[in-house]
Amino acid sequence: MAIGIPKLTRLIPHGKILDTQKTDKKSYLSPIPFPVDRNPKYITFVTRKIIERKIMKKALVLLSGGLDSTTALYVAREQGFDELYAITFEYGQKHDKEIKAAKAVAKAAGVKEHKFVKIMLNQWDGCSLTDEKMDIHDGDINRTTIPDTYVPARNMVFLSVAASYADALDITDIFIGVSEVDYSGYVDCREEFIRSMEQTINLGTVLGAEKKQKITLHAPFMHMTKADEVRLGNRLGVDYSLTWTCYRGGKKPCGTCDSCLLRAKAFEEAGIKDPLSY
Ligand SMILES: [Zn+2]
Predict the structure, then answer these.
(1) Do the domain assignments include residue 30?
(2) What are phi and psi of 18, to 5 degrees?
């Protein structure tokens, strides 16, 4: 009479119970117990994913579709951030030219994910960019007072939302195209504000306050003239024909608003022809 061999089961490290009579020693010791997982193609796929996860550097760019934010996107890429995210705000502008430009720019730059967030800052009055009762006046780049195109605390609102997105996706680097040089005097474009906001973001996100992964606000043009910015963007391959700068939403840029004047001055000083015709 044949002696029956007792059927044994053993718990292997990953928690699967296998019948030892049907499992050879090699497969028992293997951390991947199923034949399908030993498929060379599957292993190559997993290995590639692990490598990608290690080397892909993520950055989030506040992208308005204008000259500054578009150049900032390309600077991020130049600095080795190869997994780019963009966030664009619809805040009640009188036209959607910037939004369309942002879409085109993000597509051209190979952005992985582009979010559009509506925060209607036109619910309160006083800004000519959003208040239908107000006209957008011709610009004056020598003015020393803050113009009525200033959207109250816009960058503070935008950076707060961007920080939320970054916190959700574990992104530690946020780019914003603000500058203290050649700008319209907006208070939320100054370095003092950006540094303070960076500190606040690190205190108010899990990434910064709990995981201790410092979030950095990159403002690469803070102390750069717009002309130098255009030169840099040109070198990095920015297609400025895709961008929209004008405060007014005509078929062509008006050439006389503050934003158009600053742009024209930048291209002229840089010695580069603006691909947008006025
Ligand atoms: Zn204009």
Answers:
(1) no
(2) -115, 150
pLDDT in tens, 237-278: 999 999 999 998 888 999 999 899 999 999 999 999 999 977
Distance in Å from the first CA to the final CA of the chain: 101
Angle of the 67-78 helix axis to the 226-235 helix axis, nearest 10: 50
CA of 230 to the centre of ligand 1 (A): 18
Q: What residue type is 206 in one-letter code?
A: V
pLDDT interval class at 5 (50, 70, 90): very low
- Within a domain: residue 9? no
Give the CATH number, domain containing residue 244. Answer: 3.40.50.620
What is the mean pLDDT of the segment spanning 37-62?
A: 75
Centroid of ligand 1 to alpha carbon of 258 (angstroms): 7
Distance 259 CA to ligand 1 centre (A): 6
Which comes out higher in pLDDT, residue 37 or 220? 220
Distance 27 CA to ligand 1 centre (A): 70
Distance CA 18, CA 9 (A): 6
The verdict on residue 209 lying in a domain is yes
Give 137 Cα–ligand 1 centroid separation in angstroms: 10
Output the CA 43–ligand 1 centroid distance in Å. Answer: 55
Kindly give the distance from the C-alpha atom of residue 97 to the centroid of ligand 1, in angstroms, as a whole number: 12
Look at residue 62 and tell me if it is in a domain.
Answer: yes
Q: What is the DSSP letter of 112?
A: S
CB 260 within 8 A of CB 122: no
Find out whether 116 and 99 touch, Cβ atoms under 8 Å: yes
Q: Which residues span the domain enclosing 257?
A: 57-270
Q: How far is the CA of 249 from the centre of ligand 1 (A)?
A: 8
User: 247 C-alpha vs ligand 1 centroid, how far in Å?
Assistant: 5
**DSSP-assigned letter for residue 263:** H
Total count of domains within the chain: 1
